Amino acid sequence: MKQIILFSLFFLLCMSIQSYAQQENEWLPESTEWHYPVPPKVEPGKQGSAPSDAIVLFDGTDLSKWKSENGGDVEWSIIDGTLQVEPGKGGIITKEFFGDCQLHIEFRSPDPEAYDGQNRGNSGIMLQSRYEVQVLDGDNNETYVNGMVGSIYKQSAPAVNAYTKNGEWQVYDIYWKAPRFGTNDQFESPAMITVVLNGILVQNNFVLKGHTPYVGLPKYEPHGRLPLFLQDHGTKVAYRNIWIRNL
Q1: Is 87 a residue whose pLDDT tops 70?
Q2: I need a labelling partner for 155 at 20 to 30 A (CA). Which of 108, 148, 192, 211 fits?
């Protein structure tokens, strides 16, 4: 009886191996190849210029895609092809609303004068008007690390300080996945962000805990697509070459 059972098990094992081998032999290389849909062709920009499918938000001359956070015309200055914060005039927001996106933006801190910490070259890039990537002079400028350049404000310090020198142009490439809200504004999933500063990864798929307030703890409140917001924090930070891609 024992021999019959062992023989039966051996027979079943052999049949399973043979069946698996036949299944493997039935696969063809093209069985795992995708041909549709074909990704659209996009022409890359050269030296940081916008790719062909990007929305150019500032090209050095035109502010038609922006308005003041107060609702009127932008009161910042265009100087030699750059967009300069005018302290006290308020921030600016895009007229168009965005969700998931890729954002390219370049900034330059003003001369530091006698200012230090959060008073030196401070501005902010607010994804969907409420999630801030910090803009700050990072050249020998001591401050709290979750508020330095490259940080997600008050939530995540950058992996490294990739800022070069005061007075030089700094380049941000930001990849943003917006939070999700479902039926009846029910929270479904948090926002996620990757930030590259001057070609160096400083935030790697960081999951946000909510908005980025100056005081208090972050939290999520339901919202849809919202404008990009650039902050007036009292210093003459300059911006240039701003473009965005919807994802």
Answers
A1: yes
A2: 108
* DSSP codes of every residue in the chain: -HHHHHHHHHHHHHHHHHHHHHHHHH--GGGG----SPPPP-PPPSTTPPPTT-EEEE-SS--TTEEETTSS----EEETTEEE--TTS--EEESS-BSSEEEEEEEEPPP-TT--GGGSS-EEEEETTTEEEEE---SS----GGGSTT-BTTTB--SS-----TTS-EEEEEEEE--EE-GGG-EEE--EEEEEETTEEEEEEEEP-S---SSS--------SB--EE---SS--EEEEEEEEE-
Mean pLDDT of the chain: 89
Give the total number of structural domains in the chain: 1
When pLDDT is cut at 50, 70 and 90, the band that residue 6 belongs to is very low
- Domain membership flag for residue 176: yes
Residue 199 in this model has a pLDDT that exceeds 90: yes
Per-residue model confidence as pLDDT tens digits over 124-147: 999 999 999 999 999 989 999 999
37: in domain: no
**Rounded CA separation 117/235 (Å):** 12
161 falls within a domain: yes
Residue at 21 is within a domain:
no
Instruction: Name the amino acid, one letter, at 7.
Output: F
